Each structure stands twice: as structure tokens, then as C-alpha cells.
User: Which sequence fits this backbone?
């Protein structure tokens, strides 16, 4: 079993884009208030769960490992920070995000089990994951077949979310969690849907749209095949999370079919990108199946874009989201 990467164990909090979201009030549960300080939570009882130890902290709350008192099932519980709970708008968005997550129910998205409220402080109960983030997993260049396997799972998760009108908004390698199976295959669990919209500007840069999500998949793929992923799961050269000033150079030995797919996903104009996560997924699978050979008729792989071809060879070029 791989180690637990506690820096990415913060649960997913999906949220509709601001134009669609309509936060609703949730009445508090009639249970004893939680202690005000997160450090005092360990050893406390929350519903049927006993809090065992702290796993990590994020901009919204503290995540703790908990165990069901009767069936010994382990879960992760996040309690909203006390100062965040005082901001009614962020609390409303947090609760709406949790309710939205229950709509998706996908194998590649972390599962939410319960939502509660104690003395005005919300908490979430979700599945406990053992593994590591993609940011921790990716050290150096990854094989194209492995990158495609991971990205197709990400696309599956995004497709399920997009079908409900939900965009991720801050996709990067730190919120893609990998859980290994007995055969060693890495299973993707996507975290932090819409969480950037709930964080202060310095901690998140939300762009709630399908084209932005697809751009993020393409950029992530390019960084993984080039071995240019930073320690925090972001482009090593990016000045701020979520902002790529340049497209990363693609390795010259990368199969041309895969290069085409990644470049189309990272196209400067959203209209030039893939129309859906499913379309991107299909193109990725077709590209790796070719393994650098000529594309058979009918696959629909895009030619290299003219703005890229004019450079003469793969390299960093200006880009925008």
C-alpha cells in the first residue's frame, strides 16, 4: 500500500459555476457543538465517528481521519475553519458544493457520505483514500501510455461532472489523487471540484467552464510527458496557480498523434479545443493506440495547428486560457 499523501487528502467540494449556483440554507443538526479549535478535535465524537488524527489543512478547513464507532469503517472528515464559518457567503457556497457532489456519483470522483452542521460550522464526511497525489507520483517524464491512462480517467470524471453543468475550475496534479490496485494500476480520484471559487484570490484562480477544464487536461498531459511538473503539481515555470504563460515544450520523441491531441486541448482559443471531455478522452485513446504510426482513416485526429507548425518544432509558445 502506498503512503497517504495528506497534502491532498482534502475532500472534493464540487460547486456549480457562479452563474448557475443558487446556495440554499441548511438547518444545523441537533448535536453538541464542535470545539472551536481544530487542534482540539482529535479524540472527539462527530455523529457516529470518532476523530483519530489530523490528516491535513487547507484554505477552508481541517481534514481528520475518523472511524465509525460500530462498524470500524474509516472516513475522512473536514471541519470548516472557524473564521471561514463566519463568512455566510462562503459557508453557503461550501454547502452548495457538497450538495452538488452528491449528484455526480462517479468512480473517479471522491465520494461524499454525509454533511452535518455543529454550532454554525459545517463538516463533510467522505471516503478515505490511501495513495498519493499525481504531483507526488510524477517524478520525471512519464510514459505516454501511462499519461493517457491517467488523463482518460480524469476525462471520465470531468464528463460526468459536465453532464450536470459542473466544471472543476482548478484542475492540476495536486487535486488528482491516485489509488493503486493489487496489480499496480493507478486509479484516479478527482478532488476539489469548484473549490477555487471558495478560496481567497491568492489561493485559487477559478475559471468555471468546460473549455478551461479541457485546457487544464492538455496542459497537465504536456507537463507529464515532458517531465516539467512542479513540486506542487503546477507548471514549474508558472507564476501563479492556474496560469500558464507558455505552452510547455513537447518532447521531440513524443508520438505525433499524441502531440496533436495535447496541442488541440491547449489551443489558445476555446473554440479550437475539443468540444467535450468525452471527445478529448476518445482522441487520447486513439492517439496512444497508434503509437506514433500513421492515423487510420476515420479516426478524426486533428492536424497540427497552423500557429504551432509555423514555429518549426515543438517548443514554448504564448498561450492563454
Assistant:
Amino acid at each position: 500500500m502506498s503512503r497517504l499523501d495528506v497534502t491532498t487528502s482534502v475532500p472534493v467540494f464540487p460547486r456549480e459555476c457562479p452563474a448557475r449556483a443558487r446556495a440554499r440554507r441548511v438547518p444545523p443538526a441537533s448535536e453538541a457543538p464542535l470545539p472551536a479549535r481544530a487542534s482540539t478535535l482529535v479524540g472527539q465524537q462527530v455523529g457516529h465517528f470518532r476523530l483519530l488524527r489530523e490528516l491535513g489543512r487547507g484554505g477552508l478547513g481541517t481534514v481528520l481521519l475518523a472511524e465509525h464507532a460500530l462498524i470500524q469503517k474509516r472516513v475522512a472528515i473536514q471541519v470548516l475553519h472557524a473564521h471561514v464559518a463566519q463568512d455566510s457567503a462562503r459557508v453557503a457556497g461550501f454547502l452548495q458544493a457538497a450538495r452538488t457532489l452528491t449528484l455526480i456519483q462517479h468512480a473517479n470522483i471522491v465520494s461524499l457520505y454525509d454533511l452535518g452542521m455543529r454550532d454554525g460550522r459545517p463538516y463533510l464526511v467522505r471516503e478515505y483514500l490511501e495513495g498519493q497525489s499525481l504531483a507526488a507520483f510524477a517524478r520525471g517524464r512519464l510514459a505516454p501510455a501511462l499519461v493517457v491512462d491517467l488523463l482518460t480517467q480524469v476525462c471520465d470524471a470531468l464528463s460526468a461532472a459536465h453532464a450536470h453543468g459542473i466544471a472543476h475550475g482548478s484542475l492540476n496534479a495536486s487535486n488528482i489523487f491516485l489509488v493503486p490496485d493489487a496489480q499496480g494500476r493507478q486509479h484516479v480520484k478527482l478532488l476539489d471540484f469548484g473549490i477555487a471559487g471558495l478560496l481567497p484570490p491568492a489561493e485559487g484562480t477559478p475559471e468555471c467552464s468546460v473549455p478551461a477544464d479541457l485546457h487544464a487536461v492538455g496542459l497537465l498531459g504536456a507537463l507529464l510527458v515532458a517531465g516539467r511538473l512542479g513540486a506542487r503539481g503546477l507548471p514549474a515555470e508558472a507564476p501563479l496557480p492556474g496560469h500558464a504563460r507558455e505552452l510547455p515544450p513537447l518532447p521531440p520523441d513524443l508520438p505525433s498523434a499524441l502531440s496533436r491531441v495535447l496541442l488541440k486541448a491547449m489551443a489558445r482559443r476555446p473554440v479550437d479545443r475539443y468540444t467535450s471531455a468525452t471527445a478529448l478522452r476518445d482522441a487520447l485513446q486513439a492517439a496512444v493506440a497508434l503509437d506514433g504510426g500513421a492515423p487510420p482513416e476515420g479516426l478524426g485526429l486533428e492536424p497540427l495547428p497552423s500557429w504551432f507548425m509555423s514555429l518549426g518544432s515543438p517548443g514554448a509558445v504564448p498561450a492563454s486560457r
Q: What stands out?
A: Confidence is low (pLDDT under 50) at residues 1-36, 196-206, 236-245, 292-321. Residues 6-127 form a domain with the Phosphorylase Kinase; domain 1 fold (CATH 3.30.200.20). The helical segments are 82-85, 88-104, 134-137, 144-162, 210-226, 256-265, 277-290, 306-309.
